[in-house]
Each structure stands twice: as C-alpha cells, then as structure tokens.
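A favour, since you know our structure tokens better than I do. Would you make up a two-line entry for one protein for me to read? Write everything out right here, beneath this request.
=====
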Amino acid sequence: QLQLVESGGGLVQAGGSLRLSCAASGRTFSSVAMGWFRQAPGEEREFVAGITYSGTSTSYADSMKGRFTISRDNAKNTVTLQMNSLKPEDTARYYCAADRGSGRSRPPVVATSYAYWGQGTQVTVSS
C-alpha cells in the first residue's frame, strides 16, 4: 500500500513555473508507475503525465508536451512535475497517483489504472 502527499502548488502568473512534488511512503514505490492528474471545478479528472517504475518511459497529455516534465527519484520515494510556461487553463487541483499494477513498460494514462491517490495540491494561474 502506498500513501501519497503532494506539495508545491500555489498561485503563479501566466508564463511562470511551479514544481510539484509527491512524497510516497510504502515499499512498492520503486516498482510502480506514477502519474499526475488534474481536475478543475466542474471538469473531469484528466491525465497530465506519467512515468514508469524505472523512469525510463514517460507520457504526457498533448497540451502539456514541451511545458511539463515528470521525473522520479526511487531512492527518495518522490515524483516531481516541473511545470513551465503556465497558462490560466492549467488552473486545477493536481493529484499524484500510483499504478495499481507493477513493472509496466509504459505508464497508464487512464485514472482507473491508478489505485492510490494523494489529496491533491491547488495550482492557480492568473492572467
């Protein structure tokens, strides 16, 4: 079982950057893919980025490609999301999630593939 705690959210102007972190507790962190999702008020939760257990493969939603970077440190049980060139439409609550499976060669992009979720961290981008 994994417990996830996000941090790093806040208020930033359009064009700015934020770095989100997710700290995981649990023995299985290094064997599972991790993902970031976001949800704006009145919207469905959407995939942002994912990374395999080894960190060798990543996946991004089209609107985040080139702006967001996901990475992980298995020694520290952390996964981070570097967000650059932020836009007002990036405003949402961002969630860290851990894959329900293990050892995948590609990170899942659907929320139902993830079994463990953090409480989220709010990101607000002002215009």
